[in-house]
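Hey L., structure's done. Input below.
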Amino acid sequence: MTSAAAIVVPAATKHTATLIFMHGLGDTGYGWTSISENFRLRRKFDEVAFIFPHAPTIPITCNMGMRMPGWYDIKDFGHLNTMDDEDGMMNSVSIINKIIGEQIDKGIAPERVIVGGFSQGSVIAFLTGLTSERQLGGVIALSGYLPLRNKIANMITDVGRKTPIFMAHGKRDGVVRYVWGEKSRDALADMGLDVTWKVYEDLEHSATPAEINDMEQWMDQRLKATVSKVQTSV
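Output:
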């Protein structure tokens, strides 16, 4: 369980790792539970608990102020990477940090906690992982972009700089433009971060089985790399 509103899928065996995955604008945690269902059917990541938080319902400026689930406000879809709602973003980061703290309190090593998300959710995953005072296991960003580009370099912590990142983007994405993902990748690499970058030629603003498979392989590598932490975390 978690104090935040979320769908929680417990580990099928001994709980030694956690994936916290944030949905995109207008969605809920239910929208991404198929990831865990797929893994469970194939007996993959049985040691992992999956947490799919629900974003708070807030007015979204670019949608005429309509209230919907959102991790932060968006002023203009055409300028996602220049008009950041920093307060809204950091409020959401605090929600995710609280979930992380609860996992650590349960005995999960921070190196075995991975944060991820799609679109808006990936922005919160970026900020959570990069600004964390804990060494997390990694960041997953699907169809996302690096926010706060004029100040993010000064916000990254020493441990955040060591956190591996998996980024995936479709070339036909018309919402979070492919070039924004590409520039985000370049910015992270220029700052010395370890970025795995995957591109899907015909993918729009969505996910594809090939992308989830690539994410799975990356997660598998990350969890195997931190297996030594299990003995001291549980």
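The chain has seven helices and nine strands. The two ends are 17 Å apart (CA to CA).

-- N.
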